[in-house]
Structure formats: C-alpha cells, structure tokens
Amino acid sequence: MNRSADEALRARALKVIPNGMYGHESTRLLPALYPQFFSKAEGAYIWDADGNRYLDFMCAYGPSLLGYRDERVEAAARAQTALGDTLTGPSPLLVDLAETLVEMVDHADWAIFCKNGTDATTMAMSVARAQTGRKVVLLAAGAYHGAAPWCTPIPAGVVPEDRAHLRYYTYNDVESLEKAVTEAGDDLAAIFASPFKHDAFIDQELPDPAYARRARELCDAAGAKLIVDEVRAGFRLARGSSWTSLGVQPDLSAWGKCFANGHPISALLGNDSCRDGAGQIYATGSFWLSAVPMAAAIETLRIIRETDYLEHTVHLGNRWREGLDAAAARHGYALRQSGPVQMPQILFAEDPDFRTGYAWGEEMLKRGVYVHPWHNMFLCAAMTDADIDFALEAAEAAFAALKARQPSLEPHPVLVAMFGAH
Ligand code: PMP
Fold first, then answer.
1. 93-104 and 291-306 are packed helices; what angle lies between their axes, rounded to 10 degrees?
2. Is the CB of 362 under 6 A from ligand 1?
3. Given CA atoms 62, 66, 123, 240 in this order, what sign does their dihedral have?
4. Could you tell me if 44 and 382 are in contact, meaning their C-beta atoms sit under 8 angstroms apart?
5. One domain, residues 250 and 278
6. Ligand 1 centre distance from Cα of residue 198 (Å)
7. Is residue 352 one of the residues assigned to a domain?
8. What totals of helices (H) and strands (E) does the chain contain, helices first?
9. Mutate to test the pocket of ligand 1, among 119, 139, 232 (most ligand atoms within 8 A of CB)
10. Residues 39/51, Cβ–Cβ less than 8 Å
11. CATH number of the domain bearing residue 12
12. How far does the signal peptide extend, from start to end residue (predicted)?
C-alpha cells in the first residue's frame, strides 16, 4: 500500500502542528498502517492522500449521514453560497431552520445554533444553571460531551475548579443516579445523559427505559433539567428525539455532527421551561449564524423526514453485524458487537489490550475498508448492499490474514502506556 504522500505530510506536520496532529483524529492511537490525511470523499467512500480508496465506516466520526457530498444537500448549500454565508446578522434561514427543528423534535420549543457539539453541550449546562439558579450537574462517568475544560477526557490544562460542581453516576444504574441526586441536595441544576452509552474502548449499552424514566422523575422532583446529548446519535436512531421511543422527553438537547450532512452547524434545543434561562446567557460566535450550513441543514432534515435513510442503514447494519459474526466464527474468532447496528461498536472477545482488533483493522484497511478498533462506527445512507458484500468479502480475507499473524501480534505501545500492561 502506497503511503509516501501521507508520510511526507506527517513529516511536515510534525514541524507546524503540535504532535503532527491533535485530538482523537490523530492516528497516534490507531494501528500503524492507518493514514492520517484524506484528500477527498464521495458517497460512502474516502480517499487518503496517496489515493487509496476506502469504504468508510467512520463517516467523519458521524457527520456523513446521507453519504459524502450528497448532491441534494450540496445543491442547497451552493444556492446559499451564491447569496452569502457569514453576514452581519442571521439570514431568514435561521427562523426556517428553528421552525423545522421545533416541528421535528417533540420537546423542542426553541433553538440556538452554534458550530460544534461542544458549543451545544456547554450551552445546555449554562442554560440549565441560568434557569434554575443552581450549580450541580450530574454526568455519566466516562461519557463524552466534548473538548471543553468541563468535559475533556484528557486532563491537561484543566483545573479542579473547572469541574467543581460536576458529579458522576453510572449510566443505566438507577441506584447510582439516585445517590448522586441525593448528594446534590437542593443545588441540582441538571442531569446529562447520552441516548445510549457510546463510550470509546468498551461495549455499548442501549438505555434501560427504567433509567431514562427515573432520570426524568428525579429532575421533575428536584426542579432540575434533563439534558440529552444527541450530538453523536441524533437522527441516527430516530427522526426526532432519541428518547421519544422510551416515553421520555428531556428539557434540553444538544445536536451536532450529522443534521447538515457534514456542513458545520450544531444546535441547542429546549422546551419552554428553559426559555428564560436560554434568553439570559450570552450565546454567540463569529460563525454561528453562517447561512450555508443552515441551508444544508434544512435540506438534510427534509431528506430525513421524507426518505427511508434510517431503515436503510438499519437493514445494512443488520447484514453487516450478522455477516461479520459468521465470518469471524469461520476463522475461530468471537466478536463483541454492541450498540445499534447503524452505529456499531466492533470489539474482539478476549482482546484486553486490543492487539487483535488493531491487526484486524489493518487487514481491513489493506482490503479497502476503513473500520475503527475502539470507537463506535457509523453507517451512512449512501452505502448499498453491494458495499456490505464488499466489506464482508474483505472481512473474510482479513480474518484469515489475522489468524496467520496472531502469534506475532504485539499490543500498540500508546495503548499500553494508556491502560498499562494487561
Ligand atoms: N457529545 C457527543 C456525544 C459527541 O460524540 C461529541 C463529538 N464526538 C461531542 C459531544 C462534541 O462534539 P464536537 O466534537 O463537535 O465539539
């Protein structure tokens, strides 16, 4: 596999980018073969800087819902680009988009738009505190809500005061949630939850309806706000709020990633019980009102309402999960596949230091399929049954190649440093 352009870029990047790359998009935590740089994308495929093509099961870590460069969305974006993007104030699309989301998301009575998921989750916390006049916010331990000091998983640059009023409970564990609520006393502002437990490196958990309902009851009893972080899972599980199927409506929800199919926009949605608090906080950013992503969002949301994108990804996800299990078994491997099929986490049983998963990822990459060894993946609506056939053929060969390599596999050095030797 040619890697010369990627290697040259990495060498240049080391001089002008801290560590050559930052965040979880750095290949520092991925198998050695994984490319750092990508040059283009189309539909379900991405091309690295050397021109190698991959069927992409990461979908840009979520933003590609319909497939890269979906022509319907791009046409809407182009039409708005011809008129203007970042202006002195919002375009009329601000109101159109807010009306659209208020219509589609049951609990939403209003919207504030921003750029990244972290903007939306951070604002959700501020609105809950402004509305209640209280400080304590409960979070599920290990859940990712963004890269700000209050929520980054990496402690560098964070001081304890940044998290002074945060408390942690265990996702799906009603007892631990009740305990954390009791300890917050009369200072509870909010409880945060993800639509399902989609933490990195571990098996995913669907929400226990009893946990979701109890979170709602506890908030109601305490006069606190329930916040659902839809940034990753929003519109991938439902055409509206992910917990509507459980009969639970949050007060606030944070959205991002996919609702403009890759165009940069996120949103905080809330109900009327938080409208005053939302009106009190200072909400702005130089690019928060840019109109092109709003045009892309309105078209993406139309496609979400009018097509079978969701059922299609579930159909493909079921085929992928079942086919992979069968292929793994034929080669003597057992997989731990968890999470919704359209957002799958694929780990190996008996692979505590991830050496097997990492090597399988490399073998898939060599065969033109980009999978992730520890983060949940995403299917997009541009994928076809033929793409799943292609991926399953690659998987069959990758398991065979893995078997041959198994005796000589070593754990990834950065993971050993992170988790210690197993
Ligand atoms: N919340 C969740 C659940 C996320 O998955 C992410 C991004 N991975 C964020 C918040 C933060 O979003 P962003 O990276 O756009 O700031």
1. 30
2. no
3. negative
4. yes
5. yes
6. 11
7. no
8. 12, 13
9. 232
10. yes
11. 3.90.1150.10
12. none
Task: Tell me: do 37 and 119 sit in the same domain.
Answer: no
pLDDT of amino acid 21:
97
Number of domains composing the chain: 2
pTM for this prediction: 0.97
Torsion of CA 91, 94, 99, 102, to 10 degrees: 180
Reported as a pLDDT band with limits 50, 70 and 90, residue 157 is very high
Per-residue pLDDT tens for 2-36? Answer: 999 999 999 999 999 999 999 999 999 999 999 99
pLDDT at 421 over 60: no
358 CB within 6 A, ligand 1? no
Contacts of 18 (CB under 8 A, 6+ apart): none
Residues in contact with 86: Cβ distance below 8 Å, sequence separation at least 6, in sequence order: 286, 287, 289, 290, 291
The CA dihedral of 142, 265, 267, 312, to the nearest 10 degrees, is: -70
Nearest to 387 by CA among 137, 23, 57: 57
Mutational test site, ligand 1, from 65, 139, 231, 259, max ligand atoms within 8 Å of CB: 231
Residue-wise pLDDT tens digits, 360-418: 999 999 999 999 999 999 999 999 999 999 999 999 999 999 999 999 999 998 888 88
Our answer on whether the CB atom of 118 is closer than 6 Å to any ligand 1 atom is: yes
State whether 229 and 364 are in the same domain.
no
Residue 300, domain member (yes or no):
yes
The angle subtended at Cα 240 by Cα 250 and Cα 121, nearest 5°, is 50
Q: How long, in residues, is the chain?
A: 422
Are 301 and 327 found together in one domain?
no
What is the domain range of residue 11?
Answer: 4-61+308-337+357-419
Does a structural domain hold residue 350? Answer: no
Tell whether 261 and 326 lie within a shared domain: no
Same domain, 320 and 269: no
End-to-end Cα separation, the chain, in angstroms:
32
User: Per-residue pLDDT tens for 59-113?
Assistant: 999 999 999 999 999 999 999 999 999 999 999 999 999 999 999 999 999 999 9
Confidence of residue 1 (pLDDT cuts 50, 70, 90): confident
Q: Is the CB of 122 under 6 A from ligand 1?
A: no
Residue nearest to ligand 1 atom 10, measured at CA: 145
By the 8 A CB rule, do 108 and 270 touch? Answer: yes
Distance CA 47, CA 178 (A): 48
